[in-house]
Amino acid sequence: MATILLDGIRKMYGKVAAADGVSLEIPDGEFMVLLGPSGCGKTTVLRCLAGLEQLDGGRVIIGDRDVTAWPPAARGIAMVFQSYAVFPHMRVFDNIAFGLRMQHRPAREIAARVGEGAALLQIDHLLDRYPAQLSGGQRQRVAVARAIVMRPQVLLMDEPLSNLDALLRLQMRAELKRLHGEVRSTTMYVTHDQVEALSLGDRIAVMRNGTIVQCDTPARVYDAPANRFVGEFIGSPPMNFMEAIVRADGAAWSIEVDGVRIPMAAGAAPRPADGAAVLCGIRPEHIAVEPTAAPAVLPGRLVVVEPTGPHQLLTVQAAARSVKVTASPELPFRAGTSIGLRLNPARILLFDRQTGAALTGRA
């Protein structure tokens, strides 16, 4: 295992900077997730770390070695691709053993490592089968086993679960988390799936337009997004944003949304200037439904009710825009009725209207 340091790496495709001065340090044994929409540069960063792309600037350091100019085979890495990339004419045993045989490892060592890797991925009973005889999840396990038996310093995964159905993705997420707990390889995992990122990562680096806009723990990325983009990208449904005005009243202060004053929690700091035009951001689960006549409650009209099993997702027209709210499935709601929305002051975040940067946050 080894630490990873990406020091201002830059990769150009024509005039487009796919990686625009990306700097990131990954401690030994950490599971780092690169998260972002398609085209944000996350796979390019992974390929630069792997040595599959030649840098236009910056350095890649693994452990205490500057490997910027090194070929992939010399970097001590293993990679799991989006496609399974298993050899259809080889048995599972031979697929897992392929890299070890390319290194001319002794047959006894190969057998031991393949058995160990297959047991970790719970496919040791499939070693005599061919890929065509396996499910999609089993093939992906073969690809992961082939990587870990190499005992790499660094394990790279490029959207390895995207080709699986929802149930298999759920199962494989749990398997990958368990596997990392046992192997503890320094891991970089690329995905556009926020659920994967939140459930797997020790930390998440959120990317946009070739740069990292926030790198923090899953809890911090969800609860304290650095800007509006992160708040809207993380969460399903995403964070709600409403235009507001800051109103000071001595030591206390509030925000005014669509003519309704909402007192702010004492811990929300620093306080923007009185009269400042801001964006109020709040997650759907932090909004309660109440009668419209209650104080500090936003009046709205219920547009859509979506039962989702554990809760109902409500779409409410309020504050001149649609607001998403989650509510108990036992409460009776009917589209077209008037309802009130109470925003939890302790969970409100404020953002700059122009730049989208967070103005207040929670420790």
The CATH architecture of the largest domain can be given as 3-Layer(aba) Sandwich
Shape: elongated
How many structurally independent domains? 2
* Gap from first CA to last CA: 32 Å
Q: Can you say what the CATH homologous superfamily of the largest domain is? A: P-loop containing nucleotide triphosphate hydrolases
CATH topology-level name of the largest domain: Rossmann fold
Question: What order do the helices and strands follow?
Answer: EEEHEEEHHHEHEHEEHHEEEEEEEEEE
Number of strands: 20
The SS-based structural class is alpha+beta
CATH class of the largest domain: Alpha Beta
Describe the structure.
There is one protein chain. The protein is of the alpha+beta class. The protein folds into 2 domains: 230 residues, P-loop containing nucleotide triphosphate hydrolases (Rossmann fold, 3-Layer(aba) Sandwich), CATH 3.40.50; 113 residues, OB fold (Dihydrolipoamide Acetyltransferase, E2P). It is built from 8 helices and 20 strands. A 6-stranded mixed β-sheet has the order 6-7-8-3-9-10, with helices on both faces. A 5-stranded antiparallel β-sheet has the order 13-12-11-14-20. Strands 15-19-16-17-18 form a 5-stranded antiparallel β-sheet, with no helix packed on it. α2 packs across α3, α2 packs parallel to α4 and α3 packs across α4. It is elongated, with a radius of gyration of 25 Å. It starts with a strand and ends in an 11-residue tail after the last strand.
